Amino acid sequence: MEDDRYKPLGHTELQDPLPLLSTFEILGQTTLNCSWFPIHRLLSLAPNLTELVLSDISLVGVDQNPEQLVLPHLERLSIAGFKALEWHAHILRCFSTPRLQGLGLPMRSITSDGFAPFLQRSPPLQRFCLDGFAPGRGISIRGVLDLLPSLTHLEISCSIIGKIVFARLFALLAEEPPVLPDLCVLNAFMTRSPSPSAWSNLLHALSGRRHTLRKIKITITSAALDASPDTLAGFQALLADGVDIDIGFGRNLLLV
Fold first, then answer.
1. Torsions phi, psi for 142 (to 5 deg)
2. Pairing status of strand 95-96 against strand 127-131
3. Is the pLDDT of residue 8 over 80?
4. Which DSSP category does 147 fall into?
5. 3-state SS of the chain: helix, strand, coil percent to 5?
6. Which pLDDT does position 178 carry in this prediction?
7. I need a labelling partner for 80 at 20 to 30 A (CA). Which of 110, 131, 215, 232 fits?
8. Distance (Å, rounded) from C-alpha 47 to C-alpha 45?
9. Which pLDDT score, from 0 to 100, does residue 79 have?
């Protein structure tokens, strides 16, 4: 019996249901143009799909298909790319995902008019990955987090304006009442260290959430951690108290 997982994506193969197809990935380059219509057709034939990844491609025709696709068993959806592509702003309008648990997006391409309605059609998200966040483009980081009150895992990667983004994120986590009250895992990747006050806010947030926010991993690609000795000592105290804190430059970790 032929395994559905290895069928090629071609027009002659898009007639029969694909009940064994659970993961579908398209990984390419931003210069790779793919028509949305055969992909839409294939997804409609895969009722048991649980994971969908679309990365570094250019989808043509996403804004021309008004039919919303229901993916009844999809748990993980990841949309990634190094450039802000036009189709990113339309893709979420194409899906209804009643069992979604995890979502990954390049937020520089997604605006509130597509993001918020998509979340309203989905269950409360548990895991969220933000890639290359750019404040001021349609939705703020506060606006994002306010739409995700049930989040337990947050991953955020930011390069050019990372200092601003992470300073805002750490300040929000230290607020009362708490933003993301159920957050237990935070992964962050940055190219430059935020200010000492930002690290102090993160320490304050962790100190108040030590029984819930139990795992922190922050990777910095620059050569300096701009945090005060008192803040570093506070992180070490939380580490000794059982909080899993990992802050450093790639493999050269400061706290393990």
1. -65, -40
2. unpaired
3. no
4. T
5. 30, 25, 45
6. 83
7. 215
8. 6
9. 87
